[in-house]
Design brief:
The chain is of the alpha+beta class. It has helices at about 30-40, 45-50, 50-55, 65-80; strands at about 20-30, 85-95, 105-120, 120-130, 140-150. The protein starts with 19 loop residues before the first strand and ends in a 7-residue tail after the last strand.
């Protein structure tokens, strides 16, 4: 997936509908990421914990990373550009998980600016966040609305 790395201060005015942001950092998913968080939310599904059973599964062949871990990482990678000036998170919708993620996969984030609207406290931006693995396979997409600060008046 090719797009320029976006460099700005994260104010409402810095975003334009139609922008595609490539976030600078990636994150390799460790076994600890999966097991720790999956245990914390009490997701006890075997595909996340039982390597022996997973090896017998013709679809996965290895333990898979819990989807909540995957999209949390993508949102976290996007946050350096899309949450720096956040006043309030408003919603996360249309969450879709497209492909399995395994320990050792590296995730990258992209964000499309879908909409902008003025608000009394700042401005609302709607993003489509997308996560890809190291092979450019789409693993996640979801929409997020966030209330951002507006740029302070100069002077």
């Amino acid at each position: 997936m090719n797009a320029p790395i976006f460099n700005h201060q994260g104010y409402f005015e810095d975003f334009t509908v139609g922008d595609v942001l490539k976030h600078a950092r990636g994150k390799t998913v460790s076994e600890l990421d999966n097991v720790l968080i999956t245990n914390m939310v009490l997701n006890t599904a075997e595909p996340h914990f039982n390597e022996h059973a997973a090896q017998k599964d013709p679809m996965f062949k290895h333990r898979i990373v819990y989807g909540g871990v995957n999209f949390s990482m993508v949102i976290g990678l996007a946050a350096q550009d899309t949450a720096q000036r956040a006043i309030r998170e408003l919603s996360m919708d249309k969450i879709r998980l497209f492909a399995p993620v395994y320990h050792g996969d590296t995730l990258y984030a992209y964000s499309d600016v879908l909409a902008k609207e003025d608000h009394a406290e700042g401005g609302i931006v709607t993003f489509l966040h997308r996560g890809f693995n190291q092979n450019d396979v789409l693993i996640y997409s979801g929409e997020r609305r966030v209330l951002l600060q507006k740029r302070p008046p100069a002077g």
